[in-house]
Amino acid sequence: SQGQAQLAGFSVILKFLPEGGALLFTFMILASLVAAGSAALAAVSSIGAIDVYRLLRPEARGREIILASRIAMLSVLAVGIAVALIPNIQLLYLILLVGAFRASHLVPTVLALFWPRVSAVPTFWGILLGMLVGVPLFVYGSIVKIPTISSFGSLVPILITLAFCVGGSLFQSA
Question: What was the pLDDT predicted at 1?
Fold first, then answer.
């Protein structure tokens, strides 16, 4: 069954490690999840408050920025809880969903390493638009079980960020 296949890693750990080792392994997994989650929330807080909210309200200071960062964190938390509560969700889909988010970061990362003309503002909006278009495509393709649509959900963010990064940077330097 697919549900049992997703637990293969834990089954191996339980088989080859003593009970204490399996317990330590479980704590290690939980610690890594908490660390990754807190890093993601900190990043979203910063992006939400500084990059987005201050773009909309440049005069914002102090408590207003803190409130914007908390709202950004709560929004991501709500999305995470909604995804976790999807009935019969498979671990594979969650891993592929993260890949759809990461696809929007591929082009900006590579270009930032090798092309000094990359501009921050078009890159930011390219990443944001790539995620807003690509992730729903991926989710829809996964729900209706059409692999072509799911694949486009990972390819569209790459194309969008490429267009924004290259086009926006060339346009700003012109």
Answer: 45
